[in-house]
Amino acid sequence: MISPQQVEATIKEKLPNAQVKVVGDGEHFEAVIVSADFEGKTRVKQHQMVYATLNEAMASEAIHALSLKTYTPNAWQAVSQV
What we know:
By secondary structure, this protein is of the alpha+beta class. 43% of the residues lie in helices and 24% in strands. It has helices at 4-14, 43-53, 55-59, 73-80, and strands at residues 19-24, 28-34, 65-71.
């Protein structure tokens, strides 16, 4: 079983400039990632970038389900002011 902190650390390792918050129960996780690396990329491409950081955990089925919310810094600022 993998912890939310381990998932968070893995994402931060591959996307070092990202702000990451992960919650979960050891199999099902929800992650919010804010990164300037997402600028100019579609939501699908942003999610692919995050999934790529977790490829090993996903392939081994340590992570059964992952819900992602990805934002650029500007988009996050707009959302968090609502």
